[in-house]
Amino acid sequence: MSNAGVIIAGAAETDEIGRLPNKSTLGLHIEAARNAVADAGLTMKDIDGIATVSAPGPVQVAHALGIYPDWVDGTGVGGTSFLLHVRHAAAAIRAGYAKTVLITHGESGRSRVGAPPFRGDPSSPAGQFEAPYGTLGPTTTFTIPLLRYMKSYGLTPEQLAYVAVAQRQWAAKNPRAMFRDIITVSDVLSSRLVAYPFHLLECCLVTDGGGALVVTSADRAADFPKPPVHVIGTGEASETPMISQMLDFTESQMFRQAGQRAFAEAGITTADVDHLMIYDAFAHVPIYGLEALGFVKKGEAGPFIAEGNTEPGGSLPLNTNGGGLSYTHTGMYGMFAIQEGVRQIRGEAAAQVSNPSISVVLGNGGMFATCGVLVLGKNPR
Length: 381
Prior knowledge:
Layout: E1 6-13, H1 25-39, E2 49-51, H2 58-65, E3 71-73, H3 81-95, E4 100-108, H4 125-129, H5 138-153, H6 157-171, H7 185-190, E5 193-195, E6 198-199, E7 208-217, E8 229-238, H8 253-266, E9 275-278, H9 285-293, H10 301-306, H11 323-326, H12 334-346, E10 358-365, E11 370-377
Parallel strand pairs: 2-3, 2-4, 9-10
Antiparallel strand pairs: 1-7, 1-8, 4-7, 5-6, 8-11, 10-11
């Protein structure tokens, strides 16, 4: 099934990102939603579909905005949820269930204002079979596949560190990025060790903020003030809620499957991609993403990044807002990756790539648990 005929007509983030103790989780949703709807030149009365994750969830967000939607999606599968929302919204629009869908994100990840408490479920599989051994939360969980990858493919600490170095070069060009000072491999490796082999600068930020999107049919493109961003391919997949149950610690099956579906739907290959956003909660995730999508062979992504290919001036611009390592990371980062893909296609990014026609966005949910992939284009295909 093709997503041809669906566009992102509105896209915006909250006025500020970073440390926002005066704004609640729901307040961030509302602010982002209003900004995105205004970006599309619409009002809330024009919205007939809504999607977001639980807490506060689509019903509460819709009510707070004065929206009475015909279509609701509360899919919550971690930080990639918003990529799945775009996919589901495209399907709903094609099916005639909604005409104009608002996708919202707001998260007080740092200040925890109105945010749900962190809980672990001791009766869950992970609670029974992983948590008792100290594998709980991203830092200790994500180390497991990375250590196997390093042993199997020879990824060096210096190459891993360079992921953060490359992305900081993009962040230096972005006034909204939380961290903008240029760093070196030595800076990364001398930063505090958090959970071996992750140093502090190889771990994502913890921030507050939000963003929202307006998705509608392409035949309305002329009605909006901004250039349309066509959703030309989408994919989604899941693997496991337990890191110990990955089929192969050295690769992400769900990254590969979701990417293949999105590329096939869009009718593209890696050679057609001008710009790339890969969810980077930790420095190794872009490595897994580059290999799963087929940009490089297995074991080659670390050297590929360390050779400068993904930084400003490189052959494959990657995470051009600075990513979760330097731009922002509220806990669920996928919305911000989509926002940067939209900005690049529109030609309004802070660190703008030269005339990109296709941007690919890959999102990760949980610890290699779920994945969404979007292919965004300047033109329909």
